[in-house]
Specification:
Number of strands: 5
Helix content: 40-55%
Strand order of the largest sheet: 1-2-3-5-4
Largest sheet: 5 strands, mixed, barrel
Number of helices: 3
Radius of gyration: 26 Å
Strand content: 15-25%
Length: about 140
């Protein structure tokens, strides 16, 4: 596996475990209170609770992690990678149309003439940074 995949998987697990940390702390607090009042809890009950908690963590991980890895589709992050058409020549600044909307744009590859297709690389405030569409 590559390093990026390993680090994103580790990050996803870390996010899930931190989200469930308060549940684990609450459960530990319940056991401490029971111990303080000298309530005997059989080992089998503790094992069952541990298995249920482990299953819950596994299910939450399977439900949440795919959504953490999904590409952003709204806001500035959602614009990166979209294709557009140059409306007013980019020398290096001009106007492009992306998704039916007109945007101020700046070419990162020199001049681009009207009618050419471009790809959004980045957003700087309300201006898109673009390059020619890769063939």
């Amino acid at each position: 596996m590559d390093k990026k995949s390993d680090s994103s998987s580790l990050k996803a697990w870390l996010i899930v475990l931190i989200a469930l940390l308060d549940d684990v702390v609450a459960l530990a607090l319940v056991f401490v209170v029971l111990w303080f009042f000298r309530v005997k809890v059989p080992l089998s009950v503790i094992i069952v609770i541990g298995l249920v908690l482990g299953t819950f963590i596994f299910i939450i991980h399977r439900a949440i992690v795919p959504s953490l890895r999904r590409r952003k589709v709204t806001g500035a992050e959602g614009m990166v990678g979209l294709m557009g058409e140059v409306v007013k020549s980019l020398k290096p600044d001009g106007v492009i149309r992306v998704g039916g909307e007109y945007w101020q744009a700046k070419s990162l590859e020199g001049d681009i003439e009207a009618g050419e297709d471009v790809e959004v690389i980045d957003i700087d405030r309300l201006s898109l940074e673009v390059r020619r569409k890769a063939s």
